[in-house]
Specification:
This protein has helices spanning 3-25, 42-57, 91-96, 173-179, 194-200, 215-227; strands at residues 31-33, 39-41, 64-66, 81-89, 102-109, 112-120, 125-130, 134-140, 146-152, 162-166, 185-189, 206-209, 213-214, 230-234, 249-250, 253-257. The chain has 266 residues and is of the alpha+beta class. The chain has 2 domains: 3-152, Fructose-1,6-Bisphosphatase, subunit A, domain 1 (Fructose-1,6-Bisphosphatase, Chain A, domain 1, 2-Layer Sandwich), CATH 3.30.540.10; 162-263, 3-Layer(aba) Sandwich (D-Maltodextrin-Binding Protein, domain 2), CATH 3.40.190. The longest helix has 23 residues, at 3-25.
Length: 266
């Protein structure tokens, strides 16, 4: 299967998962807690099962690492490939009913995102990318029918006033200290992996993440960012890496246009 065919299949699968999520989003639903005290809804579980079944139906035999079933992951295949899935990224946003949640599906090969889809079902748009071939934003209707597809890229001009995308929660002291180097900036609040995608489509200039995230939170959106001309790097400038999936936490990182990286990193 060609990468373009595979990406099309993943777009469809992510959209199906998003539609399943929206059916639950639009009615009352139960909220439970995981062992780490993070929230879990029936939408997380429904999307997980749909995505796993869909990936297995492709017949490629690529292992699946999903946030909702870590124990089922058998490790990478002989080519260093695995699917990295967050069935519902932004569960807190889902519970708040602000629409800023996504379905994230990425294909990892030798520690790097090869392709990725980030679908935002409440917004009725998705981001889709093959790292070496470019990124697109897709607009679709309530029935899941594609209406528009447009190529996206990061904003390459060095900003006079930095548009900084970040969490809706208050800024930590470490974040305030880091932001001082930008001198002139504005904060654009956003939830889930949409923060990375805002940079990818040129609607924000930088996303600094100085707190914990997990592999499945970033991989699909990283594919979109890199395909759009941006980078997702640790604070020492190394690309965010997925070669050790048993270590599920990411280090702190920055998302920015490749040509602006030197302006914000030591």
């Amino acid at each position: 299967m060609q990468n373009s065919e595979l990406l099309s299949a993943i777009e469809g699968l992510a959209r199906q998962a998003g539609q399943a999520i929206m059916k639950i989003y639009n009615r009352e639903f139960e909220i439970t807690q995981k062992e780490d005290a993070s929230p879990l809804t029936e939408a997380d579980s429904a999307a997980h099962h749909l995505i796993v079944e869909g990936l297995e139906a492709l017949g490629l035999g690529i292992p699946i690492l999903s946030e909702e079933d870590l124990a089922a992951f058998s490790g990478t295949d002989q080519q260093g490939r695995y699917w990295l899935v967050d069935p519902l990224d932004g569960t807190k946003e889902f519970i708040k009913h602000n629409g800023e949640f996504t379905v994230n599906i990425a294909l990892i090969e030798k520690g790097k995102p090869l392709l990725g889809v980030v679908d935002a079902p409440a917004c009725q748009w998705a981001y889709s990318a093959i790292v070496a071939e470019g990124a697109n934003k897709i607009i679709y209707n309530a029935e899941g029918e594609e209406l528009e597809r447009q190529a996206i890229q990061v904003e390459t001009l060095l900003p006079k006033r930095w548009r900084v995308v970040g969490s809706r929660s208050h800024l930590s002291d470490s974040m305030k200290e880091w932001l001082e180097r930008l001198q002139d900036f504005e904060i654009l609040p956003m939830g889930s992996s949409l923060k990375l995608c805002r940079v990818a489509e040129g609607l924000a200039d930088i996303y600094p993440r100085l707190g914990p995230t997990s592999l499945w939170d970033t991989a699909a959106a990283q594919a979109v960012v890199e395909a759009a001309g941006g980078v997702v790097v640790t604070l020492n400038g190394k690309p965010l890496d997925y070669s050790s999936p048993q270590e599920t936490l990411n280090p702190s990182f920055l998302v920015v246009a490749k040509n602006n990286l030197s302006s914000v990193i030591n």
